[in-house]
Design a protein that fits this description.
The chain is about 35% helix and about 25% strand. By secondary structure, the protein is an alpha+beta fold. The chain has one domain (about 5-140).
């Protein structure tokens, strides 16, 4: 089991669920976002399918200015200026880790943003996060536990 972790994507524009999904496909991930999710209403658990298996993570739209200020007070520079922030919380297993790395990396790439890794306390470019998602996927693909979630609307 992994501990609960957080990543934040900072950007100057948002993307639709369709654009985000297309980005995941362009980046080579078989990660299907829940088809009924409405981007503007994302607040909490987002079911996804990774390689056909159910998993997910929490995602929230954040007050960007307040978050940048809070991180700055803690000594972390996230660059910018940024207009939007979207946080991703996950933990539990490697399927969730791969999913959130791919989702955050692709979303940041599509929106021209960056990813703040709360565990490492550093800002990363989307390509770095996507490379990490691929590395974890390749290293753990044969060691993943059974899916913890199931949803059916993606069939």
């Amino acid at each position: 089991m992994l501990m609960s972790m957080m990543m934040i994507v900072f950007s100057n524009r948002t993307a639709s669920m369709r654009e985000w999904q297309a980005g995941l496909e362009e980046d080579g991930f078989d990660l299907l976002l829940h088809q009924s999710a409405v981007f503007e209403e994302l607040s909490g658990f987002l079911p996804v399918r990774l390689d056909g298996a159910g998993t997910g993570f929490e995602v929230y739209h954040e007050d960007c200015a307040a978050l940048v200020s809070e991180l700055s007070e803690q000594g972390w520079d996230v660059g910018g200026p940024w207009q939007y922030a979207m946080s991703f919380y996950f933990g539990g297993d490697f399927r969730e880790l791969i999913s959130v790395l791919a989702a955050a990396g692709s979303y940041a790439r599509v929106t021209g943003g960056v990813v703040f890794d709360g565990e490492e306390a550093k800002v990363q470019q989307p390509v770095e996060v996507l490379d990490e998602a691929r590395r974890v996927r390749n290293n753990y693909k044969d060691k993943l536990d059974a899916p913890r979630y199931e949803w059916r609307d993606a069939q």
